[in-house]
Amino acid sequence: MKKKIWIVLLACLVSGCSVKTEDRRIPMETRIQSVSEMWHYAKSYYGNWQLISQSDWDDAYYETLEKVRASKTDSEYRSLMRQFGARLQDGHFSLTWENEPEEKRIPLQFTIIEGKLIVSAAASFYTEIPVSSTVNQINGQDWLTYAEDTIGKEIGIQTPGTRQLILAQLLSYTKEEAKEITLDLVTPQGEALHETLSYLDKDDLILWTNAANPLLDKSKNKFLTYHTSPMMDAMIYQDRIGYICLRSLKTIGIAEELEEVMTEVIKDLDFYVLDIRINAGGSGAVAKAILNCFYPDAIPDLILYHQEMDSYDVGVFSSLQAMNLSSEEIGESPELDHDRRRGELMADNQYYTASGTSVDINTVSPLPNVAILIGNRTGSAAEDMAAYAQAVGIPLIGGHTAGATGQVAILNLTDGAKMMFSTVRVVSPCGQDFLNQGIHPDYEVEQTLEDYEEGIDTMLVYALNFAEKQIEPR
Q1: Alpha-carbon distance 163 to 144, whole Å?
Q2: Strand pairing of 370-374 and 271-275?
Q3: What CA–CA distance (Å, rounded) separates 404 from 408?
Q4: FRET pair for 135, CA 20 to 30 Å: which of 33, 368, 404, 473?
Q5: According to DSSP H, which parts of 392-471 are helical?
Q6: How far is the C-alpha of 145 from the C-alpha of 147, rounded, in Å?
Q7: Alpha helices in 351-436, H assignment, sequence order
C-alpha cells in the first residue's frame, strides 16, 4: 500500500510541475508534499480510526491528489485541503494559513435559537435589518442547505446543534473577493425582507447595535457580582446561590482562582451553579481540579485510547515529551516514567488504555448542592468536565455538548499551514463514547426565541429554579 502511494506521489510531482495556472503562489510541488504530509500525520497520530477506516483515508488521499493537481488558485487548493482533513470526521480538525487573504464580513452576526437562524447583532450603519430577525433562505436556498453546500464540507463533525451554530457563525465571513449574499428574512414584527449585502473589510464594521444576547435575567436585580476576570465571573443570586461562569480551562491558575473565590468570596452558600456553556476547553486536569473544589473525593478517570506510530519523533502524547528524554533526565519521576512506558506502547502501534474500568454512576453519591450548565458551545476539556461531573452524580442542565474532545496535535505542513486534530479517543468514566455524540444533559433545556428577544436566559432561569427547589427554605 505504501509503495503504491509513493509511486502516485512521484507521478504527481512530475506531472504537476508542468501545469500552468493563474493565481498560484503555492508551487505545485509544495501542494503535493503538503497533501502527503497531511495523509501521513493522520495515519501516524489520529486517535479515532473507529470513525473512518484507514483504507477510506487512503482513497481520500488519492482523490485529493488528483483534485489538487487540477486546482488553479491558492484559494481552491486551500479549500481542497480543508475538505480532505474534514474527512477525518474530527471536531477538533482545523487548517489555517497565516498568509491567507484578510477576512471580509457582512454587517450581521447570527446564532441558532429553536433550530432557526437568528440575527444576533447588526451594524446599523450598513443595514436596517433588525436584531432577532429570522433568516429563512440564503441565495434562494434553505439557509442550512446553503451553509452545508458552501461551508460544511470544510469543517469537522460535531453534534448537530453545535454544527449548526458553527455554520451560522461562519456565514458572516468570507475570504473571497466581491462576494454578495441575498437573505430572505422575517422581522420580529412579522415583516418579510429581501436584502442583498456585500462582504466588507471587517475593520470597517465597528458600529454594531446591541446584540439580543441573554442578560442573565439581571432585570430582576437578584444578582450581585463579586468577582470578574478574563476567565470567570462569580455572582450570588438571592443571597443563597452562587453562579460561576467559567470561560476557559486552559491553565491550572483558573482552578486556583476558583478555589480562592470559593473560600474567600462566595463561600458557604446553599447551592452552586457552574456555567460552562461558552467554554471551549483547555486541560482535563484543570477540569478535575475545579470539580475537586466541590467534590473532594477521587473523581474517576476518563478512559483514553492512544495510537501512535512515530511517537519517538513527535511527542504529541505528552506535554513533557518524555520519549525525547534520556533515562538520566527522567530519573525517579513516576509521571515521566509513566509517559515513557505509554510512549513505548504507542511506538509499537498498540492501543493504550489509561483506565480499564468503567464507573457505574448509580453507585456514586450525588452532590446535593451543585449543578452544571452545558450547551452546544461546551467543547473539548469542558466536555471532559461534564463527563467527570456526570460520573459523580452532578446534574447537567441545558443542551448537548459539541462532541469534540481528545488531546490535540498541532503540526506544520510544508505549505505553511498548521493542522490540528485529535490524537486520543476519549471515553467517559461510565464507558460512553462522546466524540461526535456529545454529553447529554440530565435536564434538557433550550433557549426560547421569546425569552431571547426579552433578554432572558432560559437555561439559566431553569437552573436557578432547580437550585431553589434543592435547598431548604429559611
Answers
A1: 10
A2: parallel
A3: 10
A4: 404
A5: 449-453, 458-470
A6: 5
A7: 381-391
Per DSSP, which regions of 387-442 are E strands? 396-398, 408-412, 417-422, 424-427
The Cα-based distances of 188 to 118, 132, 142, 164 in angstroms read: 10, 6, 19, 21
Task: Answer yes or no: are the C-beta atoms of 460 and 447 closer than 8 Å.
Answer: no
Residue with cell 449585502: 197
CA distance 316 to 307: 11
Contact 197, 108 (CB under 8 A): yes
Residue 330: enclosing H or E segment and its boundaries?
A: helix 327-330
Query: How many angstroms separate the Cα of 337 from the Cα of each of 302, 367, 386?
Result: 20, 35, 29
Apex 219 CA angle, 459 and 246, nearest 5: 45
Output phi, psi for 394, to 5 deg.
-75, 125
Q: How many CA atoms lie within 13 A of 407 on its CB side?
A: 18
A 10 A CB-CB count for 7 gives 10
CA dihedral 27, 28, 34, 39 (to 10 degrees): 170
Distances (CA, A) of 267 to 297, 340, 404, 419: 19, 42, 33, 43
Distance CA(197)–CA(442), nearest Å, equals 42
| Strand 271-275 with 241-246, pairing | parallel
Cell 505553511 found at:
416
* Nine-digit cell string for 177: 473577493
Chain-centroid distance of CA 84 in Å reads: 19
Task: Please state, in angstroms and rounded to a whole number, the distance separating the CA atoms of residues 331 and 325.
Answer: 10
Asked if residue 401 lies in contact with residue 159, where contact means CB atoms within 8 angstroms, the answer is yes
- Evaluate whether 23 touches 74 at the Cβ level (below 8 Å): yes
Q: How buried is 324 (Cβ within 10 angstroms: 0-12 exposed, 13-18 middle, 19+ buried)?
A: middle
Residues with Cβ within 8 Å of 64's Cβ and at least 6 positions away in sequence, in order, are 35, 80, 81, 83, 84
